[in-house]
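User: Fold this; tokens only.

Assistant: Input:
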Amino acid sequence: MLKTLRDALRIKEIRSRLFYLFIALVIIRAGSQIPVPGVDTAVFTQFFENAANDAFSFLNAFTGGGFTNFSIFALSITPYITASIIVQLLTIAIPKLEELHKDGEQGRKKLEKVTRVMTIVLALVESVAMSIGFGNQGILELNLLNVVTVTACLTAGSAFLMWLGEQINDKGVGNGISIILLINILSRVPSDMITLYSNFVQGKTIAWATLAWAIIAVIIIFVVVIVLILNGAERRIPVQYSKKMVGRKSYGAQSSHIPLKVNTAGVIPIIFAASIMSFPSIIISLSGAHLEGWGAAIINMLSSSRWFNPNDWFPTIGLFIYVVLVVFFAYFYTSITFNPIEVADNMKKQGGFIPGIRPGKPTVDYLQSVLKYVIFIGAAGLVIVAVIPFIFNGMFNASVSFGGTSLIIIASVILDTLKQVESMMVVRNYKGFLS
């Protein structure tokens, strides 16, 4: 990785792109520290420290602390991510969007416009809801001026980050939205390490401190290895193409393969599952309601911070709901992004076939059967990566932000960015047989 970066810096265009990326990252981190005008950040910080809400910590990790500071980037690019997912889901429900999805470059640009508009709408709705909700909590003075100020700042901040992500795509390196997520997540790692140090090392004997650091390192390395395996593993289905005539020339048979990634849905199932389970507690927290009895028990059951508590195992029942949601969304999202019928039709039109499988419906059935096993393996891996931090958080109070979701994002974004840099280097420094 260091050699790749050193070689890349020798190329002027790549060097300028990396410099543009660096400036963009500085702007992102600086904006995350600028509070919304008229807001007392100390009051917000105290409120979030006292509120045992998984959704708030989830948002804080994705915004790099901007949510706790209630900065102008408090929403970060979460509205854009939500809008992108909604547009993808609507492409199978609305025929017009499905046509745009299949319309090549022009259709893609129109879908991007729809996503941008939906991002602004979602940012407006979330900003208004947050300003009124926090006003009801008494941590923000509820009046028209404050509601307008908070709404305008948060919406503008989210729109700016969306624009900046697109600029990184054009003038920088890597996927802009993913890069913004990456830098926000990485910015929380130092504070997480300080938390681990204060909980397990500070004030302990040298032997105990060494053992604690060794266990922490083994756990982190184990989770990272699983994430890397999930990110790179794929099932390759062989495809054979028959001979064909183009003009007067005959082209021989070719062999290829269909790569089915084990983790076809990425972190989408975990994000969806966590969002659904945390939504009720967000509404209750913003409304200021106080539940007792079975209502409080159900909310605790939906909170991952209360799972695996040795003193109270009842909330851990919520883990089974979480696992079911992750597996369901893994199958659901993959069914949207990968269509076996369309793949089989394209293979048949190009004269391709899977060895031992007849074209048409048998090919579709074969692809669906293989896809079911592949998705299940990927979903099981996602569950393992997500649950390991929950276990240590519940049993040992090791509350950190770099959980399974964050590690998957970190690994995938870094690997994809390095691949893009290497591809740019190959184009400009291709070494042929003469050298």
